[in-house]
What does this fold into?
Amino acid sequence: MSKSNVPMLTVTGLKRVFDVSAPWLNRVLERKPRTFVRAVDGVGFSIDKGETFSLVGESGCGKSTVARLIVGLYEPTEGSISFEGVEIGPAAERAKHPDIQGRMQMIFQDPYASLNPRWRVGDIIAEPIRFRRLLKDKKALDDRVAALLTQVGLSPVDAAKYPHEFSGGQRQRISIARALAGEPEFLVCDEPTSALDVSVQAQILNLMKDLQRKLGLTYLFISHNLAVVYHVSDKVGVMYLGRLVEWADTQTLFNRPQHPYTRMLLDAIPDLDMSGRARVPVAGEVPSPLNPPPGCSFHPRCPFANERCKREVPKAIPVPGGAVACHAVEEGRLPPWKAQAAA
It folds into this structure.
């Protein structure tokens, strides 16, 4: 296979387990065992160059943990992360390829917390350039910072200001400029608009789409907002309690969702087109990740669950346009999507 045909990012069997046990003495006195959380439990997907792959799901499903595993902020407990065919999952392997690490950047959720309040904006944006030693001449560095600020819709004079002098949307533009400063090809966007007003969200999303077209960027987009995901994504993966339950191209997933959880998420979206579709809120609560249900983790909330769902973890099966991990889909127990929505 030629390099051009290799996905930019491939994740296989990715797992991350966190030890959330009480201190040793507390456990001895209270006679409690160690406690572990499977934040990510066997996730796998691939992203081709130039496309946007989105991960969606309720809070606590493991989306942000996947993002941090990919950029190296966490190390996988098990599984593989490869960038253009090169393994970068374990820290030791990632350290062998600093050039690959430089081609990846992350845009964080909170623009208020992700910028150093003691640094001027120009220094914040210039830091990746200095770290990677892309430019050594001060004038060239200043010119590059000015160009980046202009590229994200700010003014070169803003380089002399501090982060507290900007609004939330402007701070996220600064975060995007900082991410682009190192000339990356792959951006991990961890809910980059969730802390912003709706009108500002649209501006930032339009900016990100324009930059993707101009610079040929590849995005992993993390969000819980399905409306946002629909407009920015080429492919979508739906996560629940650390596992991918369904993934497909965007049109297929939104028009013909297979998994009951995906259907529930889409049913909860207000019917802005006034088509008469009943709005059904997502029932129940997400179980505690400290004590997940056996079998399919969604079965306590699923109206189509049977005994098999309660004891056997479903495996992904191919469906038109993607794949789904659901016993009810495999056995043909689900009604057609439109029929269910109209019921």
The first strand starts at residue 9 and ends at 19. The chain is about 35% helix and 20% strand. The chain has a mean pLDDT of 89. The two ends are 48 Å apart (CA to CA).
